[in-house]
Amino acid sequence: MFHWLLGDKQGLARIFQHFGQMLEDGRHIFDAASNTFVGGTDPAVVKDDLYATDRRINSIEQQIRRELVVHLSVNEGAELPICLKLMSLVKDAERIGDYAKNIFDLGRHVRDFNGDPLCADIVKLKDRSSRLLAKMRNIHESQDEAAARAFCLDGEELLRNCDTHVEALLKADVGSRHSVAAALMYRYVKRVVAHSMNIVSSTFMPVDKLDYFDEDPDPE
Predict the structure, then answer these.
(1) Which long-range contacts (CB under 8 A, 24 or more apart) does 86-89 make?
(2) pLDDT (tens digit per residue) in 72-104
(3) What gap in Å lies between CA 38 and CA 107, rounded to an integer?
(4) Could you give the CA distance from residue 200 to residue 151 in angstroms, rounded to a whole number?
(5) How far apart are CA 144 and CA 159, in angstroms?
(6) I need a surface site. Which of 6, 69, 110, 171 has the fewest CB within 10 A?
(7) DSSP conformational letter for 219
(8) pLDDT of 127-186, one tens digit each?
């Protein structure tokens, strides 16, 4: 879908590169934030970098939208559907940064989660999600539809895993600050993965079907 951008001389190739930076930054602050919650990283050590990176993500989002408007204004033959897709996808990339900040807040307020029985599972979840975020940029740049569909299948499994744990925590007879934090972490990771699936699925989803993975299904 986006291959035509790579050779464009009117600025869209540059926009594509900016978007790739947003994706790279999103994975970076997701990892940093998650490590404050389950990896023992001191929040004070990563705070400045995390918030500076998030501000860069927001700035690039605004820049891409401005440049897309300019491109559409001066190029009568511009690919409108693809530009509309990019307008939507930058919001997904920005939201990954927002949820990373939510995870960072968990790490600031709950400093003793490492001893919780759920910590090992959340570490695995974090590692799997981080690997997906790394694949996200590669798949988006290559526009590999088969890889994108496989990515979304893996992502759907993670979403179900997160839902299962949240439901179990809500049904538990005894609650604690750790169970609250764990439920929030599962929820935040689910949203990060869902936004990454929105981005990757743009390789095969039409404009009107974007954001499909960011919608929770109706309860049975």
Answers:
(1) 86/15, 86/19, 88/198, 88/202, 88/207, 88/210, 88/211, 89/19, 89/198, 89/199, 89/202, 89/210
(2) 887 766 577 788 889 999 999 999 999 999 999
(3) 8
(4) 8
(5) 22
(6) 171
(7) P
(8) 999 999 999 999 988 989 999 999 999 999 999 999 999 999 999 876 789 999 999 999
Tokens of 74: 């001066």
What span, in angstroms and rounded, lies between the C-alpha atoms of 135 and 129? Answer: 10
Distance between CA 197 and CA 148 in Å, rounded?
8
Domains parsed from the chain with CATH numbers: 3-214 (1.20.58.220)
- Whose tokens are 């709950």? That residue is 110
Q: Can you read off the two tokens belonging to residue 140?
A: 């988006």
Query: To the nearest whole number, what is the mean pLDDT of the chain?
Result: 89
Averaged pLDDT for residues 38-52: 96
CA neighbor of 26 nearest in space, from 199, 202, 142 = 199
Tokens found for residue 172: 């538990």
Exposure of 216 in the CB half-sphere (CA atoms within 13 A): 8
- pTM given for the model: 0.90
* Segments in the chain forming alpha helices (H): 12-38, 43-74, 80-109, 119-142, 145-171, 177-201
Helical axes 12-38 vs 177-201, angle rounded to 10°: 160
Q: At what angle do helices 43-74 and 12-38 cross, to 10 degrees?
A: 160
